[in-house]
Amino acid sequence: MKGIDHFKNLEQRTAEDALFAKKYHNPAKNLDDCVTHILNFVQRSGCNGFTDGEIFGQTIHYFEENEIEVGKPMDCQVVVNHVMELTAEEKAEARQNAVRRYQEEELRKLQNRHRTSAKKETQQSQPSLFDLDL
To answer: What's the predicted TM-score (pTM) here?
Structure first.
């Protein structure tokens, strides 16, 4: 969870709000437990998406409440839905990868068609008992 820009706003808030700064620097509170609290909050809510403000609000709530249930740590994946700007090199690489995957899939389709038609030909060329005039 290191490097999340929105948590940097906490430092700014401590500079602007002396009361929050005191609560933020409480030795009983830490960012790991804060993240655990937020993940458990999200899971309990049953919702699939939250705004940055809602998550930041839960962060503030965690630090402001003296008695707050953090919950159990969980192993999960967090998806952040922000627009990413790709460089020209990254776009070119992504395009090349997409073309390569497309070509591989088309080749696989052709090979499967060829195998299927070859299998049908071998099945049709073998005489059956019903084909014999006895």
So the answer is: 0.54
